[in-house]
Amino acid sequence: MRPGRLVKPLAAVAVMWAALAFAQTPTCPSGPPCQGGVLPGPLPLFPASNWWNLDISTAPVDSNSANFIAFIGSSKTLHPDFGGEVSPGSVGVYGFPYVIVSGAQPKKIVNFLYAGESDGVGVPFYPIPDQVITLPHWIEEGSPGNVDLRADSDRHVLIVDTDNKLLYELYNVFYDTSISTWQAGSGALFDLKTNNRRPEGFTSADASGMALLPGLVRYDEAYTNPDPIRHAIRVTLRATNNYVFPASHLTCDVSQGDPCPANALPMGARLRLKSGVAVSSPDSGVQRMVQAMKTYGMIVADNGSDMYFSGTFDTRWDNGILNPAFLQLHASDFEVIQRGYGSNFTDLSVTKTDNLASANPGQPVTYTIVVSNAGPSVAIGATVVDNLPAEITGATWTCAGAAAGDCVVSSGSGNINRIVNLPAGGSVTYTLTGTISAAATGSLSNTATVTAPGGVTDPTPGNNSATDTDTLTPPADLGITKTDGQTTAVPGTPVTYTIVVSNAGPSAAIGATVVDAVPAEITGATWICVSAGGATCTASGSGSINQTVNLPVGGTVTYTLTGTISATAKESLANTATVGVPSGMSDPNPANNSATDGDVLPGVDYYTLTPCRVVDTRGGAPIGGPALPGQQTRVLAMAGKCGIPATARAISINLAVTGATAPGNVRLFPAGQAVPLVSSINYVAGQTRANNAVVKLDSSGGLSAFNGQASGTTVHLIIDVNGYFQ
């Protein structure tokens, strides 16, 4: 057990450093490290559910409040124990300096007097900048670290790693130049992203075992920030007795024979300014502090002068305003709230997403549901509920815990209605998979909730529920076929293609798009269209087809496209037609949205190859990764790989896609040419599909692959070659 705060005047040695003194600044103009500076957001420090940030304006008054106040002394006045320099240019300061560092700041070893209750013992752990050794105003009291004032002052060092949101606090420091080592009474690390408390009985850099910096009033929150002060304020009393939540350490222990005053407040107790008390002052900072004392209170964190509340060192403070304003407040203006208030509080939260904004009826859907406990208390027996809407069928789920979170039951089917155990900082993740009913319309909304167990209070219930909503797009299974009735063709002769577009439903597709980009090898193309089953289309045209058609369920349109194969055409002739659903609709089976007819032209020979995987963006092939990014083209040098000679003009392949993060298509074409409109393969997110194709190469044996997915998404491409033309 370490003692409480040293209550002594500033050491006279401070004057010898006056020539080196400098003012605290609110920013780091040259970057960290610096004294003072902007703290990492979001503010206040620690999660909103932390005890420092707990709204206690309606908390019950402790049954012994009157006796506690009487022991302090009803007439004791409040005093702001912070300010700027003791005198202009002096080394001595009022209040607590704090230090800003980056995550790259080198760590230092610190030797501790109370090593058993300190963090980082015996290893480089504390990111103490070298400036703290020789410069004034970086340590509480003001003198540099190489001045030994441990017997005269608490000498706290408060360090914030803004990159990692970590708070390092040291008590009673001294840098011993004879051994080039830091010495300290105790030290603690606090993760500002969590509500983790110190182990029971452990001190920190503050006698109560709590973090010190979050309880300090800062100039920026009192005067320059638009928001009110949203945390409790650290306060000292001359004597304490035991400790209560959120403290973890005491300085007076009756059980060990210490003469602790019976009505002295315990460490961690909270004083609240009575709601009807006012302070006569026009100063906005004073009024913000007064309101914070009513809303969040003051937490007893150390022994010291009675009713001295703490703040940061900052030369902008005006004690000519602060001191007389708070002299108006007396201990009798405060009440003690119920001891240990908030010890059964825990901040449970749930998030839920299927990573979709719109969904297709009939398609699978997977939700990720994460239930977390930000603390500060454990939640043994919290209830997680997800009552699935009727539009989701065949649902199954699995659950995995993290950071000691316990699912209790690891898998199931249908709705989720389970008990889970969540320590502070723990979480469980449910992965729920089902199928959206093909008859679903409108939107799909699904909500998951978490409820605290009996006897536990969640101070922030607004995050206990999460809803994922998707717009459902009407589905229409459009299909297209294309053939010229032959596998070989002769340059200079006519060719006729029959293209049939159909709608298998279940919704009508009014405004579907049919595209057939006629290749350059076909000249003089004309076409006619005949509809059936209530469908409509443009009756005739010439050149490529790029038409809008109306397809009721069961309706078809048939295009007959006629042209002449160019007399100079060589190697092969490939022609692809596609159909796409209208905007706002979906196709549950995009695999049949494209059809290609390929003919071999005389004048080239076909050579078989032993099937060989020439491309695999997952790795392990001559041409590897990474995955193809959406809306980008990659050139694949095929010549010389898997037996493909430099003289090859086309190759016979089996292409496959897998791991698509969004729906789309891949288009293969000779390197150096414009990206064609037609695709080589179509797919939906997560689908693995394969297709046979004959694709041309450029004169150097190059093949281009274009990913038609949205930007920011990817797909893996696999190509197996089984022959070539030359």
**First CA to last CA: what distance?**
88 Å
Helix proportion of residues, in percent? Answer: under 10%
Described by strand count, sense and barrel closure, the largest sheet is: 6 strands, mixed
* Structural class determined from secondary elements: mainly beta
Total beta strands: 42
Low-confidence spans = 7-25
Query: Outline, from the CA principal axes?
Result: elongated
What value does the average pLDDT take? 93
Using only C-alpha atoms, the radius of gyration works out to 37 Å
Number of helices: 5
Q: Percent of residues in beta strands?
A: 35-45%
Oligomer category: single chain
**Strand sequence of the main sheet, in spatial order?**
2-13-10-12-11-14
What does this structure look like?
The chain is mainly β and 726 residues long. It contains 5 helices and 42 strands. The strands form 9 sheets. Strands 2-13-10-12-11-14 form a 6-stranded mixed β-sheet. A 5-stranded mixed β-sheet has the order 1-3-5-6-9, with no helix packed on it. It has a 5-stranded antiparallel β-sheet with strand order 15-17-22-19-20, with no helix packed on it. A hairpin with a 4-residue loop joins strand 7 and strand 8 (181-184).
